[in-house]
Amino acid sequence: MSDRNNRVPFDEDNYTHNINRNNERMLDRRGFMKTLAGAAGVFAISSLPWGAVAAKELLGLGEKEYPHQKIVNVKDIAIGDSVDFNFPSEHDSAILIRLSDKRYVAYQNACTHLRCPVYWVKEEKEMVCPCHHGKFDAGTGAPTAGPPRRPLPGIQVEVSNGGVYAVKVKRYEA
Fold first, then answer.
1. Region 148-160: what's the mean pLDDT?
2. Which is nearest to 107 in space by CA: 89, 87, 77?
3. How confident is the model at residue 63 (pLDDT cuts 50, 70, 90)?
4. Which of 1, 64, 71, 129 has its CA 20 to 30 A from that of 83?
5. Count of H helices and E strands in the chain?
6. Which backbone phi and psi does 168 adopt, to 5 degrees?
7. How sure is the predictor about 174, in pLDDT bands with cuts at 50, 70 and 90?
8. CA 118, 147, 61, 89 torsion: positive or negative?
């Protein structure tokens, strides 16, 4: 019997001395699948709060009520006239239009196409974006012409104590 290939090149009896035998099977196929399932579970659980926020917004429950802000006195705005104001913050410009004796509508006056300011044209009874000639229906805020495809975000208003108040921003409905 020869001693060919029967010699250990190192003092250790572990031929693969650079591999830790205790850990070399930690990431086999089964271990990889367990790690993958665990990571997917952690991702799913961590995304639950964002899903709740998205569902709340999609169901229309996300309308936020702001402190009531007086826009104008009823006696100071004639039927067919408009008033510019800022709501809910001083950086959000909006427009109030008195359509009839008791009907007031308000919208954020940034066009939904490229956010150009929208103006009320009393003679034509429509809201016009001068940038790309987009037009919006004053009663609903829905686009009637031009490139905008989404309606203007509405602002809910209340009339009380002789004044018109902005109450909350309504979501547009697609």
1. 91
2. 87
3. low
4. 64
5. 1, 10
6. -150, 160
7. very low
8. negative
